[in-house]
Amino acid sequence: MRSSRHLALAGLAALLFAVPAPAQTLVRGRLLDASTDGVIAEGTIVISAVRGQWQTATRTDSAGNFEFADVGLGAFRLRASRLGYRETIGDLALESDSVVSVELRMAAQSVVLQPVTVMTRSGQRMSAQMRGFMERMQTGHGRFITRSEILGRRAGRVTDVLTGIPNLRPSSGRMGTSGHPMSRGSSTAQCQMMFIIDGVRMIHPMPTAPRVRPAEFVIDDYVSPSEIDGIEVYRGEADTPSQ
C-alpha cells in the first residue's frame, strides 16, 4: 500500500510539471541610418500589440542595439523615432518561443530651426524718451545718432560728434568747458543752434551786466558723450517734432 501511494504522488507531481508555460519570445534589434548604415544611438523603440493595448518602449544603446524580453505571441508593431530622422514603423508576427532579430532603418530628415532663439531677456525697460527716439528714427525724418555710434566715435566732446553732420560747424565764439558753440548753415550765413535735452529746451545764459553781450550756449558745458543715449538733429524749429 505504501508503494502504490508513493507512485500516485509521484505521478501527480509529474502531471503538475507537465503544464506548458505561456510562450515567450526575445526580440532583439538594431537601429541604423538608411543612407550610411551607421548606428543610431539614443533612438526610441516602441513595441505594441496590434490587438489590445499592451506596449512597452526602450532606447537604443551607443551601438544602436535594443532588446525586448518576454514578448508574447501574436501580431506586434515596432515604431522607431529619433530627432533628425523620419519615424519608421514595421509589423512583426511572433508564432513560437524563439529569439527574433530585427533591423530597423531610418531616413534622415532636415530639421527646420527658428532663425533667432531668445536665451535671456533683460529686466531693464526702455524709457519713454528712448521709445520716442526709436519711433521717430523709423520715420527717417531728421538725422539720428545712436549710443553705439556715439561710443564708436570715441569723441571727447559732444561738439566733436556733431561736427560730422552736414551743415553743422563750430562757430568762432567763446569756447565752453571743452568746445565751441555750434551753428548751422554756411560760413557766411550761420544760424545759432537750439538744444533740447530730455524734452527741456536749453536757454542761453543771461548777460551778467547791462550792455554786456550774453555768453553763447555751449553744449559741452552741460553734457558729455558718455551720458547721451541718442542725438536727433533737425533743420529748424518748424521741422522739430512736438515730442
Automatic annotation (TrEMBL):
InterPro entries tied to this protein: CarboxyPept-like_regulatory, Plug_dom, Plug_dom_sf
Domain of life of the native organism: Bacteria
Region (Disordered): 166-186
Transmembrane regions listed in the UniProt entry: none
Domain TonB-dependent receptor plug per the UniProt entry, residue ranges: 145-239
Signal peptide: 1-23
Keywords linked to the UniProt accession: Signal
Matches recorded under SUPFAM superfamilies: Carboxypeptidase regulatory domain-like, Porins
Cited Gene3D superfamilies: Carboxypeptidase-like, regulatory domain (2.60.40.1120), TonB-dependent receptor, plug domain (2.170.130.10)
Name of the molecule in the record: TonB-dependent receptor plug domain-containing protein
Organism: uncultured Gemmatimonadota bacterium
